[in-house]
Structures are given as structure tokens and as C-alpha cells.
């Protein structure tokens, strides 16, 4: 895509007044405020956009705040697939309970249950497609055998599932027999044929948002989620090359458990998955793009911030970051740092977290009456205050995976910022009473603090230069094991929440693997 230099405004001054300077923390609010103009506000210069449209890709994995909802919105206005029809199945909680009611009666053996539930998902997918495309062909309209009710799509799905449940109650057939009968119906077969004819001219993208109830101990919903992924793999294999694409967004908080414990034959069902792991330069450009839109609309954009080459990170740094944030500052320990790495290292590399922190900085500047210029002292103070909120959200996102997680991590309180891994076993003992019966072990505790991204493993420590490079699990596709002999680091985002001892003249940088690490700079 060509560089977006002086692009059309995504918002006017009146709309900008309703916005925070760096955007809202949730995509839904932005879409509601901007409506059709959201496509101009969306930042196109990330690798996820093109990768997610690859016909081989059906599974997109990301933690809370990583941009899953924004990517689902992108399917509606993307240009790579010409004249595509995008169908967004969001808020699945609206039909989650009914899906659970249907699947609960299925045998609890996952080897039998998951393929059966996958058939239900196939039924849901085709019902959704028929309902959304009914105006394009009378054969598709005739395939809406459970009605074509207006209103929200999730409401329709709930209605279709109720109709399926009623049919099961009225016959002596089991679930598979009934679903086979539905798909053998001549109206359904003709509707599928008509849909494939349409998809040759106009590709169809069906995006499924994540089920919100992802408690790993809820066997029924875990099997339902695993079945959705299995169904997606089979549906993608059968129809992606014919123009019907399914995209499933999975919560990274629970995905490792699904992959290791629930999904049947992971090598078959999980392939070409995309992990929403953001790079520093992409986050810097994203946040700068949002700020550019706001300042442009408010007519406060500095002259040097015009004609930005959004494909060149250095151009964005020079024209959209440094003029407002400055190049460097001294942190709370008096150490010199470049401003962007300082802000970014207090996040887990997720857009929402960066947006929250930058908006906190902007609020401090407004109070000081220096906006849109941000003073070093305000940046440091705002991050100290804002990091508590984003740390709480991370803990909350794991509350269904680890009951009483907020109580368990209290055992880390008062840790030094860098420590030997054997200290975790000492702290683990303090949490034994907070775990469900039979689940406590020192290993489980280490796994928990690693999964949450609270504790990472130091890869390189340079005390002379004053920095430590550390690996954290949220930037990896799998687990990060923490061994007793490892030199460990607490993530800077948790310093305040856990009252961490910042007792060394060292800055912890949790993004050592990226090629743009040196470009952005560690310090002076």
C-alpha cells in the first residue's frame, strides 16, 4: 500500500472533541463514534492485515487488547479481496448459553463430543451465511429454513439454535442424524451451491469473535471452543479456495490450554495460525497515526508533523513522536531513556495498553496546559499512575483461567526487580491455600506468573550500560519456562501494583528480539 501522506481526515473537529487524543481503549466505542469513517482512522501499515487475509489463515490468536476486534472490522473495508462481503459474528455471549444447553447432552468424551459439536458450528456458519446473503439469490433465501429474522446477528443465531433444539426434542434422532438431515435438505444444498457461485464473484468473509466464557474448568465450553476451531479448519480447507473464508479469533489467555489439553489432533486443526504479536515500530506508528488524526482535526498539528511517510518508522519518530514527547527523559530512578522505549516497556506490547498510557500522559499535559507538548515529569508521573490500571486488566483477563489469581500474585509483593528463579518457589508456598484442591505446586505458580507476563527471564544484563533484556511469554507462541537457576525480571508494568523493589540502576526492556530495538534506542 502506498504511504498515507496527508490522508483524508477520519474525523472533524466536532467528532474529535468526543475522542481521547490517542483514541479509545476499545474498538467498539471508536466504531460507534466514527461510523463509516472508521475505515480512515484504521491504521493499515501492519503486517497483520495482509496476513489475516491469506486464504490459508483461519485462526487468529491474541490477548485481550491486542486488536482482535479492530482486525475483524478491517475485513469489512479491506481492498485486497475486491467486492468482498464481510460478516462479523460478535458478542457470542448472546447465544453462548443456548449452545451450552445443546452441547451439554452430548457425551462428555472429547473424542466423541468435539466432532459432534463441530457439526453444530457448521450449522451455525451456514445459517449465518444464508441469512446475510439472502438478498443475492432466491435459492439462498429459500435455504433460510429456520427463518431470516431481522435484527442483530447473534439474536438470529440464538433463534436458529432454539429451532434446532426443538427439532431434537420432537424426534427420536440424535444430534448427528438431525444435522445430517438438515444438510441433506434440497433447499440447503441449492443454497450452498448458490453461495459458492456468488463467492466466485464476491468473496465472503465470516469472522467469529471469541467466546467470552473461557473458564478452562468449564468442560462444555472448552469443548465448544475446540470444536469451533476444528470446524474452522475443515471449513477453511473445503471452501477458502472457493471464495468463502472463515476467520476465528481466539483468546491467547486460554489458547495454550485448548491446544495442549482439549483440541483433537492439533497438527490437523491448528495450522497457519496468526499470533497478534506487535512489534515496537508498528505500535509507535499506530499510536502516532491516531494522534495525527486527532491533532489534525483539532487544528493543533505542528508544521513539522505534516507529510509523514507512514511506511518509514524513522520519519514517524522524527515528525510525530519527538515533537510532542521529546527525545529523552530521566525516569523515576534518574536514568536517561529515550521516550518511546520508556513508555512502551511499561506495556505488554498491546495497542490498548499503549493507548491508555498515552491518554494518561495527554491528560496530565492538559492539566498543565502544555498540550500537545508532553513534559518529561508528566510522562513519568502519568505512567506510574496508568500502569496500575493496565496491570489490573491483565490479571482480570486470567481470572477465569486461574481462580483467585489476584490473591495468588500478592505473594510477589516486595520482590526486587531482578532476582534468582529459586525465589519463586519460596513465594509459591505462600499461595498454597488460594489454589483449587489438588492444583497447587511450585511449578503451577511459576507457570501462572509467566503466563500473565509478570515475570520474565533475563537474556542479557549490562549493568554498566544500565539495561536488561528480558523475554516474556506474551511475546512467544508457547510457554516460557522459568527455572530455579534463571535470572528473572519483574515486568515494569507491575512495579507499582506489586510494590516491587526498584533497587538497581537498570532499565528492563521486554522486547529484545525485534530488529527495530536499536533504531528506537535504549537510552542516551
Automatic annotation (TrEMBL):
Superkingdom of origin organism: Bacteria
Protein's UniProt name: Uncharacterized protein
Organism: Vasconcelosia minhoensis LEGE 07310
